[in-house]
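Lab meeting prep.
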Amino acid sequence: MELISSITDESLAIFQWGAVIGASLVAAYSDLRTRRIPNALTIPLLTVGLLWAAWTGGLSGLAEAAAACILLAIPYVLLFLFAGGGAGDAKLMGSIGVWLGLRQGIVVLFCIATAGILLAIVKAIAKKRLKFVATSVFVSVYTFMLSLRSYKMPRPVSNLTDIEQSVSLDIPYGVAICAGVCGGGLVLWLS
């Protein structure tokens, strides 16, 4: 009990953010090299994060960690299911949510989305495909809105040239996650 009382909130935050930043750096490196974020990273990160949340916050901490896991993973699960995103991205985001909780997780989620958009725009400009990307995003959003209105699932892309062009613009989202985690940490630290 003496050990727990001697640990300060600051040292807990340093450990928490160290785990998240370290894992996101490893994920970015792995995604750049192999185009995958391995389960060997995400599953232990999730498991230890749940234990961490229970140890530092009890049942309420564990409940908040689970809620944050779901909140941060949902957008990436949807991207995986409907837009060809990676499952590793979704698992990493859920794991990050477990470690950061709801308040910090929402800030980081916003920063990651911003980093992802910026990375996609930079890659589209570098590949001279910005018009294609802008058109694809508009058509995708419009199709999704129509499918919500008619209660039908959108059909997958069937034109081979569209698939070939979109593959050439595929980005290693682990890099955006790492940049967003670091940016979110900076935003939270400065506030």
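Slide two material, second protein:
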Amino acid sequence: MALGFGIVGCGLISKFHAKAIGDVRDAKLVACYDVVKGAAEKLAQEFGCRAYDNLDAFLADPELNVVTIATPSGAHMEPAVAAARAGKHVIVEKPLEITLARCDAIIKACEESKVVLSTIFPSRFHDSSQWLRKAVDQQRFGRLTLGDAYVKWWRTQQYYDSGAWRGTWQLDGGGALMNQAIHSVDLLAWLMGPVVEIQAATALLAHERIEVEDVALAILRFKNGALGVLEATTAAYPGYLKRIELHGNRGSAVMEEEDIIKWDFSDEHPDDQIIRQKMASKVSGGGGASDPAAIGYHGHARQFADVVRAIKEGTKPLIDGYEGRRSVEIILGVYQAAEFGRVVKLPLSADPELEARKVGVANLRKL
């Protein structure tokens, strides 16, 4: 029997959710909700579901089993908690939320209601990401020494001006890191292991009328002793494919967007040539490098399918709430390190997190 899905928030990303749900076996889009009635009605008309502008009525829909949250980042907690308390399983678009306290509130509500919670990180479901993780698990890199992530994208001023919430601490929670590069932050931590120490700098250089950074640079120290670099920007015209690099004393690999472009190990495995051949014939598109609407939805579909599996089997999804919280903590650590001009150690405490965001607003406006 198909599970009934409903979408909260009918902006740009909601269409990706709707298309992904349509591609998942045992899933059906039955409802959508937005405070703007016209937005909900437009999405409902396009994808053949019921439209609501009242959250309680939406959550009371008798066919609704799973709720996906596609509101602005700093408005994830309220509908997610309400959905959990209504007994609905919850899938939250990245980031899980913009503070650790709000992340924890979502996690707690879902645990208390015994519903599945998943944070959307579709990049993990790409074949290339899975190959990298398998190579890490097989210790093919030997001792990991460097893990780097580069997201050098471009966003126009019109992009930030298109929504009052964009580029604000209150609803965006940050800039190039929290909104765009968080997928790469998640991948890097998933592949390299926990981050324990951060040094960083951020700046607002190419855009106006926003509170957050459009350039960020961080030096990371991982629990395993390896070091790493994290670079993120929306101020690099025309925008290039995002890149992940893993290096160790027995191997190195580089992933550009969804493609493996370097795959070199001291001990050759039979699968290595197969991977190289598969990747040789693939060329990623621009992704979201310059156009936020240019991303694909196939990763979302794979993740939604994983959530359906977890619900039916009574198990955890591959990416749960705690996995989503981890990337938020790393990004908040970068903001703290940049604003306070010191090394920040993880895990974070709550008070400095809030203070760093206040300082960040004041400093960025001076640039």
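Talking points for slide two:
The chain has twelve helices and 14 strands.
The chain has a mean pLDDT of 93.
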